[in-house]
Amino acid sequence: MERKYKKIYVEWWKIQRSTITGLVIFVIIASSVVFGGWYAIKNNWFVATEQADLPKNAAKIISFEGDVRITRAATRETILVTKETWVAAGDTIQTQADGRAIVQMIDQSVYSVRPNSTVVIRDNSSFFGGGNNVRVSLDDGQLNVRTEDQPENTENIVEMRDSETQIGSQTDASFNADARGAEIRVSRGDVETSVGGNKTRINANEYAAVNPGGVASKEQLLPPPKPGSPGNMAQVADSSGAGASVSFNWSDDSQISLSSYYLQVARSSYFAADSILVDRSALTSQEFRLGGLPPGTYYWRLKSNSRSGQTSDWSEPWKFSVIRRQPSRAIEATEWKIEAVGGGVYIISGKTQPGVQVKIGDKQVFASSDGTFRLQISTQLSETAVELSDESGNRAGVVISLRNARVLRKF
Predict the structure, then answer these.
(1) What is the DSSP string of 202-265?
(2) pTM
C-alpha cells in the first residue's frame, strides 16, 4: 500500500507540472498577441497607406483639415485629400476657405498652407553630399515656413511674384501674395530675397513688401492687436430675447504709428465669406459695439494697419457664445462611428439634437438639421473627449474610444 501511494503521488505531480508549464506558455503567447495587436492598431498598421507608391523625393502632407486638393502634374488629376499623402515636384496644393495643410519637405522644413491658398511644389530633391533642393511657388494666399538646422549646401526657396527668397536655418517666415502685391514677415532667423538680381536680407522681427522692381524699405514687424473683450470662450446672456448686445475692445502694444484696425466677426472659425457678420477695415478706435446677436457661437479676430502701409497678420481667433436662459435639457449623442485615415488622423461622426455644437479640442462643428455631425481630428491618443453644447447653455461631455467608438465615460 505504501509503494502504491507513492506511485500515484509521483504521477499526479507530473500532471500538475505539465499543466502549469502549458498555462505559463499560453499566457505568454496570449499577452504577446494582445500587445502586438494593440501596438499595430495604435500605429495604424492596418490602415491602407500610399507608401508603396511614394515617389522618390516626394514631400508629404502630414496634417490637414477642411477642403484640401492636389492637382497631379503628371496626370492633371485633382484629388481631395482625405489622409496623409505625398506631393511630387510639379504638383499643386490648393486650399479652400476651410482648408489648411502642413507639408514636410525633404530637408525636414515644415510648410503651412493657409486657407484660400495655391502653392506649387517646384522641387524637393537631394543630391550627392547630403544637400537638398527645396523650391516652392506661392501663387496666391498665405504660406508659413519653419526650418530648423539644415544640412550644408541646402537651398530652401520660396518663389512669389517676381521674387525668390532663400530661407536660412532656424527661421520662421510668413509669405503673403494677393492682387495688391506680396509681403514677407520674419519672426525668427533670416531670409534673403532676390528681385531682378538685387538681393535684400530680411532679419528677425522685420517686414518687407515685395514690388516688381525690388524689395521695399524694411521696417519693424507689426504685431496684431490683442483681443480683450469678449474673452475667449466667454458666454454672453441674451436676457431680453431680442438678441444680445456685445461690446468688442482690444489693445495694441506696438511702437509703430498706426492708422486703423480691421475687425471681423463670424459664425465660422474659418471666417468663410458667407459666415462673416462684421467686416470693418477702417476702425480708428479700439472698440466696436454690435447689437441684436441671436443665440449661437461666434468668432472674432483683428488686424492692425500702420501709417507706412504695413498690415499685421490676423490675431488668433477668439470664440464666444450668446446664450438664452431657458429650462435645461439633456443633450445626448448616439450612433458613434470612428474612421481611422492614418497618421493619427480620425474622422468622428454621430447623431445628436439639431444645432448642437460638437467640440473636440480646438475643432468644432454644428449638428445638421437631422442631428448628424462629422468632425476630423489629429491625435496620438487612444481616446478623445467630446463636448456638446447648445444655444441655451446646456452642456454634456463624453470620452470616446478611438478603437471601437464606445463611450468610455461621461462628464
Answers:
(1) EETTEEEEEETTEEPPPEEPPPPPEEEESPTTEEEE--SSS-EEEEEEEE----SPEEEEEEEE
(2) 0.68
